[in-house]
Amino acid sequence: MNTKIAFFGTKPYDRESFDRANEAFGFDIHYYKGHLTPESAILAQGAAAVCIFVNDTADEAVIRALKAQQVPLIALRCAGFNNVDLKAAAREGIEVVRVPAYSPYAVAEHAVALMLSLNRKIHRAYWRTRDGNFALHGLMGFDMHGKTAGIIGTGKIAKILIRILRGFGMEVVAYDLYPDRKFAEEVGMRYVTLEELYAVSDIISLHCPLTDETRYMIDSAAIERMKPGVMLINTGRGQLIHTQALIDGLKEKRVGAAGLDVYEEEGDYFYEDKSDKIIDDDTLARLLSFNNVIVTSHQGFFTREALANIAETTLSNIQEFVKGMPLSNAVRGDK
Ligand code: NAI
């Protein structure tokens, strides 16, 4: 009998890429549309793994429910693992694997798309010309060349973004807990303190993980220290930004533009078609009302190449586990 995998939060595009990759593995994948919850965990009965994405929460209750169904592995089909209670998983003896890198280009290029759209107001120009309005007032942007980008976190995604921005002729300053001096020298950028980064950057882009230390790092105190009119880009995690502080900053014109691929309460909305419903999240509704804000629905990763890599790595992570091999992409917490 083939090894069963219970796949939660399935979208048609997941099925397409996983079915294609699974031709080489032959797992028995059971696709479920709903999220993994303590109640739905029963669907994973007898499975060698559950496969979940960013907006499924594997908290203590879910992990206990998985334990009760004797599911030994949580396979994340994403890089971030802030949605998993690693301590609870360790306590229950459940392994967690993830896809550390699938296409850093996808996310870096999406960050650039947000920057260029906001700067040159493509989102507004698109509607204007469709409506026969060929006027330019309100659409003025700035040359990226010569401006300063401040990058927080200089891992895989940020490094690609930095090379692209250097290609535009931008100055780049960055902050990371673990600076990569060799890379800085190679691309011609400077590591600075957060204080200096806030003070000198025309565009600030967030690429660090969500941790206790980085949660709400962009709050009203941080925004006050930034250049007036700064553009903020977040393709990291929603809770890196205190959304109300951002809204205040936008209303006071301290923040000139914001490009958000992630939002702290995205779980109820992102990836779902809510177009025939009323948005009952006032914070999200306010964000969507600014003409200098673009919200995308956590789509930074969403390229053909990235989806193929995600499927291939996830299934090979599961195969390693099933065969008792060392896990290349395990994430482990303290008990
Ligand atoms: P990475 O692990 O290669 O890089 C993260 C960097 O952040 C590292 O250099 C690390 O030293 C640094 N860092 C850690 N704590 C920090 C702190 N307190 N302050 C400053 N820097 C700190 O990660 P990668 O692959 O570049 O991804 C970055 C983030 O992007 C992920 O954590 C994830 O949240 C997000 N992401 C978003 C996607 C999307 O679709 N929008 C898709 C993939 C990842």
UniProtKB/TrEMBL annotation:
List, alphabetically, the Pfam families matched. 2-Hacid_dh, 2-Hacid_dh_C
- GO terms, molecular function: D-lactate dehydrogenase (NAD+) activity; NAD binding
**Keyword annotations from UniProtKB, A to Z:** NAD, Oxidoreductase
Q: Does the keyword Oxidoreductase apply?
A: yes
Q: Does the keyword Glycoprotein apply?
A: no
- Range of residues in the leader sequence: none
- This protein is called 2-hydroxyacid dehydrogenase
- Species per Swiss-Prot/TrEMBL record: Candidatus Rikenella faecigallinarum
Taxonomy of the source species: Bacteria, Pseudomonadati, Bacteroidota, Bacteroidia, Bacteroidales
